[in-house]
Design the sequence.
């Protein structure tokens, strides 16, 4: 591949030849190259340019552009244009449209208003992709393909008639009979029993807005499956035509998609779209939010869970905004660099800025690119040039992987199940926020680890400690993998409400915590949400910290050992934490959602906190992220604040930007970054 | 009847045989009986179990269950399953569905998604009820029937085409001609005049969401009538088949139903569904709400207005919650007992817990019963056993009526009229809150008294003082009944805005207060809402208290006597209260909405405050409720707080739980209750 | 004309003969005349009274009323009844209805539920207007006509199929070809390109609710055009039948209408509906809103921009409220007078109170008139009598124009464009609020000046200083007019974001500020929204004041002169204000939205602040408004507060109410007003 090949970090930008006078193309590409931009992504919203009427294809426009690109020496990523069907298409085939839950069709005029399951739409998308890949796939400047644009952005629920038809097929295949469907969905409750397949639908309007949760769980799995099928349909076509070494990707991370599956069957790697300036949007800003743009490190951690080394297809370079909503300030001096380094520190070897020049028309007139409308040289373009110098200096890092000894386990069944489960969602949100923020504050790099059908204990063993916060749904197979991980020396931490549901989201009648009762040595006789007029504290040895949202009362069973108790609230004195020695490792069952105090206590117990503390000391407001390659650690320190940060380098290391050895006190400017090189074996 | 027969207080529970392996039935019933539960309600969501396809009936399932029940000695209440029509029914007959005001149909998947007026649905409901009652009505274990489930819960507005057709019929019957309809609805305003019956609809979407208020009033009366017809249709069928002594009830109290009518024509008594834990729902909790779960005493007062002695069909026993909304903590130690005693103190002789074991699937996986999913013994089951001991000790109270010397008059025409009248609603809400809370704080038991066509002065005479806060609509007949009440010694208090509307909700052109001008001796030349930047105080003799929301300027007319004036605000110096001696009693017209200060002043004037103060002193945070039977008062003291309460028993009384005589200081634990026995004639 | 003829100030009221027993008519009119009310407006919601069935006309009802009016000597304004189509009409022709954006039709039952573009509705409206004007136009008591009622009130967006059809026609006429439409709308963005006219619609539901902004701009222009066509259609008919000297007007000012156009082609003058009591609505009240009812002076300034001398068709006389929303207190003693004088001070020579007697039925039972339901004499009627005395004393003012040396330029293209442009809306709102409030506080009368195709420099020259806050859209022609204004000595102030869009709302690729770059001598290399965690201050000579919302960095170009810089925020030290000497005048480009500090600085610079300060001193809480006639200034001072205000008259002037000479200290009661007479040439 021409990017992500371990040789260098590449810069790119998103370009829309159709938005500009052709006379500007040559100069635009040459200015890009002059500041280090070597790749452009094009065409992802340009269906009509190639197929202006059904079945009529015209390749001239992009042929002309690719000629210019080749001449200039610019590399090109082609996007398939299926996120914006032509007006002629949706007007003729309204069955291609997505709809709200009440059946109101989403109409032409924005983007992503189609559904994945309309047979007509699949066919028409197949046609355009076939023609594009067939015609442009062999062009020398083309280095890769992007499928659609931001799958499941804007809408990730689908309620068209095509979706109901496909959902029925999906369920027939899954369950075989209505008897099994009724059993799986607990349809006897409130007399929902189905007696004919035609009575089965995607969720529809109900009196109180509630929907059978087991149906919903299957529905979200179905949406994920539909999205993946749509992507695979395109990937299969593209692969027929592309040159050796060219790649297939898709951009962004959105809800209701199993990206683990997508990575396995359709794409070579994921490219994330990173817009940290949302943290400063005038409509969403909160003084109380400590993490702000630093929260995007959480998204990058998710991205890395799909592809260890990944790309950024859209890296924010200007103020974001639509005419109809969202209003951001322009990135401040240094923030573009900061956000670029944030991406690279987490594993990006390709960073493509959105977009070259700000569009002068349409919904996104306020979604600013590197350049403003006029295209005149500006501060942001200059900053790109400076970034190019830095990434050139970072060249040797390419291909190096992010290092983390702490993992947080996730899986899509629980993510989908929790989404409409307001009890579980509240618990999960609290814990995920506490885990991420505590890792950040304590400078403890972490990974998200998706537990799929293919995950084995060997995939987990590299983590000293794994949190699996609240897997309501947990299979015996998964429990066995986790047990093996612990047996081989791992530390495994469950939070409250683990393992109380089966694969359909139905609650187990076994003693809690169900399938992990033996593994954890815990027994949960009672549980409760923490009442709004109560504060519950936990004491674990010397440590005291607050519980949150929910409390399982955790007794010992078998070889479990009582570690901590609640010391306030209605259940003061009851058990809060049980551990069990499992082989060379340990399993914990903690009865509440995680707070910063709880996370710190577990990290301390596992000696996993601040692993680089011996050779670098940085203030809480800075992030530490480390990439490792061939026995070398590259330590990024990122200052998200607008004031200087003092860091102390306790051993001599090399400043990658300058190539100089540094040690002792080092001042990072506001929004400043540094990358320090250090052997792993010292 | 086997419950509510004045012999004992009976415990029950809600059970769903269809949710569990049949192998569990026998053990479940035997565990219930072991802790004092003698009645189960079943079948109210089980249509498909009896009629799995249209016209195909199968009685086996519940025959088997009733066999087990009879064998175990368990009594059974059968619910008709009409709240959850089968999927085959609504798929085939979508005209049975209810709809939103914009016509969007509410679909299969929750409950209560049907309308009462579809002829097809009435017929199909008649069929299932006829078959159920015919088959199971004679079973020896069956002691009564519940019609539907929570009529008008979830949705109490109906906008289907069937409803429009029925509304037209209702109006044709009521008005005879469009001329009279136009006159009644003031249709000349904004040119709403109807010239053909087919132009008349239930409310539909309008530009600003407003609807003709007189049409709305008729529409709500029509909904109430539809609900009552639907209930009566079922009751009439059931009565044909049931054994002598078996009863008919329905559960819950919801909007847009005239329960006075229902009690007179369909049900033997009402059974309320009491869920005080909503006060601690994580989504609704407010620190500022002083009354919290104590507010359910207001609902129980409403229940008592339907049936002096009533049942609780669903008494909360666990945390409430749906997967899609609502999240409550588990009732704390003692709260189940507290809420049970709250029900009993207000007149419940049957208390049935919702539900035996928490359902492991469906929307209500978080609506916890006595037992959790596993069914293992737990704290709440133990508390039921303790409650059983207490209600056994209270046995002699059964049939005794709640005692109140203060009444608050209500009527459905004003309730319906005020609902969409935002001016009146604000006034009414303020006063009803102040009345209830002040009675609670001053330990002054009160009744709600519904003024119906059948109510005579003799029904009112037992109250020393009656508040009729703001009857905008008031007929001459009603005024005459009230005058007679006063003439015979009663004290009658009207608040602002009384009697300014006619029976159609149109405003009178008479001098205000219209039909009660003479009765009250009041004349109201002007009125105003209290401006948001004003505070208005009232001086009445020695007392000073705030007015609220609205002020009528109240002058004297005829034999009226000026009692109080506004002393601040734009109308300082103007009249606020006029009284008139009527026979042996007195009538007051007070020009504002009621505040705590105003209510206290009227209670003081009537010497009606804290009627048991001479023999018991309790802190404000405890409720006093008294049931009387055969010359004995049973005084309940209920501590809603989580801290102990000291009460002082000023005369010797018997503690009913222990059978011991007590006097002097008595400490109630947090959530503690006591019931003290005292002769009325002492 | 019998009103607005420069001879006197006339009082009127809104009367609904169809709401009352005919027996009341004579007495009502005679009571009106007794307190000085000489005009009634009638019939605007009475379609059925004249056309009870399609094509069936009956003139009797209003013939009878007009007979009574003529006999009594009452003048009459007839309203066309097209705002409330009959039930028979919308039931038979549902295509006449307006709809929500999702296509849900707005149904009969409120008002204004029709669309302007249905050919059937235009025809039926034409018929009723033709018949009304034909029949009643010649009656001697009739003095004028009101078209419809409050055009674009309730709904000012239209989404019916008739609107789509008309929108297509509008666009075909405007653009001629789809190529030009696609170009104008930037349809290449997100592949919106249209290939057939039938693919073009009014805005429809989209996934995220966004709509192409250029389409939206055309859509709002189209709505305005539709409204104006509908009005003109009626006006053209009416003019055929009315007597010489009779006038045509319409009432209220609402969104999406170009009133400059309407004034030029359909109406003789505008009549505003003034309801300042909304400031005290219980649902909208805010302690923080300093201006409250004084804000209506802003609306009156808008009214004056349509007609220098205008009428008030509905002047609030009682509490406002619908049954379904809105709840106001009764106007306080003096407020009716205050609000009447507010209208007159701004240029009203006709003030008609809404309404005579409060309607006893319908949605507006709480929209109070002068009289309450009973019609008995009351405080408000007495206040009308007092007002009549005052306006009689003010007789000589009639025809005198409001005097302002400060203007704020507006235009409909920018108003429409900003409405769905959330960036621009925020900027515009900030500045308009600051401009109005600062003028009020500094006692600096101002005008709104609409820049239309017909506006020439000569129309602007009377203003010493003109603010054109943020004209995103600005044509070369407009820039030339403005340049001429400056060249002849005017001071012209632009705020940030001026001139960055073209006539389609597309952004210019020229250097900013585009078409006014040369005129202003400014160059804007960068810009940003002010981040929510930043405060930006500006220093201009001695003055320091806050910027707001947005900052353009403003450099000099050509002969521009740097006047001010930002002194805090991310761009401290950058340019904030550039001026350029243009002929005898000066042009400023200010880089932010206006704050009070900024406005004060510009007024000071132009010596335009508090122009009457030499002869009268009044506290900030009072408004000064001046009308001029034949060399005499009539200075109104209006006290909006409920406490007395001391004003100091520095020269002898005549108090118009009393006719006495006054000077020195003068105390205005709470809500008090005074009008002082002073020669202009002193």
Sequence:
């Amino acid at each position: 591949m021409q990017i992500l090949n371990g040789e260098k970090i590449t810069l790119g930008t998103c370009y829309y030849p159709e938005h500009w006078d052709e006379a500007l193309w040559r100069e635009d590409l040459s200015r890009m190259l002059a500041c280090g931009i070597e790749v452009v992504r094009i065409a992802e919203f340009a269906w009509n340019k190639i197929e202006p009427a059904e079945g009529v294809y015209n390749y001239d426009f992009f042929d002309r552009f690719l000629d210019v690109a080749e001449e200039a020496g610019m590399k090109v990523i082609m996007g398939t244009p299926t996120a914006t069907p032509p007006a002629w298409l949706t007007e003729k085939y309204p069955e291609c449209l997505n709809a709200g839950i009440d059946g109101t069709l989403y109409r032409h005029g924005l983007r992503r208003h189609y559904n994945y399951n309309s047979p007509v739409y699949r066919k028409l998308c197949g046609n355009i992709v076939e023609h594009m890949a067939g015609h442009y796939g062999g062009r020398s400047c083309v280095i890769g393909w992007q499928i659609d644009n931001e799958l499941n952005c804007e809408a990730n629920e689908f309620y068209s008639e095509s979706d109901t038809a496909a959902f029925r097929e999906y369920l027939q295949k899954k369950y075989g009979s209505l008897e099994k469907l009724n059993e799986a969905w607990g349809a006897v409750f409130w007399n929902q029993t189905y007696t004919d397949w035609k009575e089965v639908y995607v969720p529809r309007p109900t009196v109180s807005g509630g929907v059978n949760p087991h149906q919903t769980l299957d529905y979200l799995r179905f949406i994920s499956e539909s999205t993946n099928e749509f992507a695979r349909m395109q990937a299969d076509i593209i692969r027929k035509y592309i040159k050796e070494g060219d790649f297939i990707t898709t951009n962004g991370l959105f809800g209701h998609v199993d990206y683990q599956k997508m990575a396995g069957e359709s794409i070579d790697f994921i490219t994330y779209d990173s817009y940290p300036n949302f943290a400063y949007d005038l409509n969403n800003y909160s003084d109380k939010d400590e993490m702000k743009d630093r929260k995007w490190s959480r998204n990058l951690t998710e991205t890395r869970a799909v592809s260890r080394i990944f790309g950024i297809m859209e890296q924010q370079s200007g103020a974001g905004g639509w005419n109809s909503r969202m209003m951001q300030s322009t990135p401040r001096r240094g923030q573009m660099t900061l956000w670029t380094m944030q991406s690279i520190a987490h594993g990006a070897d390709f960073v493509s800025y959105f977009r070259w020049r700000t569009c002068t028309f349409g919904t996104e007139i306020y979604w600013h690119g590197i350049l403003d409308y006029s295209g005149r040289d500006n501060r942001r373009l200059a900053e790109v040039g400076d970034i190019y110098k830095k990434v050139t200096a970072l060249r040797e890092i390419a291909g190096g992987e992010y290092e983390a000894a702490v993992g947080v386990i996730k899986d899509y069944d629980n993510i989908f199940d929790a989404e409409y489960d307001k009890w579980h969602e509240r618990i999960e949100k609290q814990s995920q926020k506490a885990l991420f923020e505590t890792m950040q504050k304590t400078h403890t790099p972490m990974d998200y680890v998706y537990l799929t059908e293919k995950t084995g204990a060997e995939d987990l063993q590299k983590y000293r400690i794994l949190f699996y916060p609240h897997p309501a749904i947990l299979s015996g197979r998964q429990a066995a993998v986790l047990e093996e991980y612990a047996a081989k020396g791992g530390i495994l931490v469950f939070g409250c409400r683990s393992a109380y549901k089966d694969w359909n989201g139905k609650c187990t009648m076994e003693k809690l915590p169900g399938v992990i009762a033996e593994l954890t040595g815990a027994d949960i006789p009672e549980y409760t949400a923490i009442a709004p007029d109560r504060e519950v504290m936990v004491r674990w040895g010397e440590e005291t910290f607050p519980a949150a949202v929910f409390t399982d009362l955790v007794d010992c069973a078998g070889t479990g050992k009582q570690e901590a108790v609640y010391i306030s609230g209605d259940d003061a004195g009851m058990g809060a934490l049980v551990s069990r020695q499992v082989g060379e490792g340990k399993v914990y069952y903690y009865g509440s959602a995680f707070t910063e105090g709880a996370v710190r206590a577990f990290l301390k117990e596992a000696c996993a906190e601040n692993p680089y503390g011996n050779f670098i000391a940085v203030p809480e407001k800075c992030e530490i992220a480390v990439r490792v390659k061939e026995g070398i650690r590259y330590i990024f320190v990122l200052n998200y604040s607008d004031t200087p940060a003092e860091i102390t380098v306790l051993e001599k290391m090399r400043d990658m930007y300058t190539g100089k050895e540094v040690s002792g006190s080092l001042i990072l400017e506001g929004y400043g970054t540094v990358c320090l090189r250090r052997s792993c074996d010292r």
In short: Chain C touches chain A through 55 residues (CB under 8 Å). Chain C has a mean pLDDT of 97.
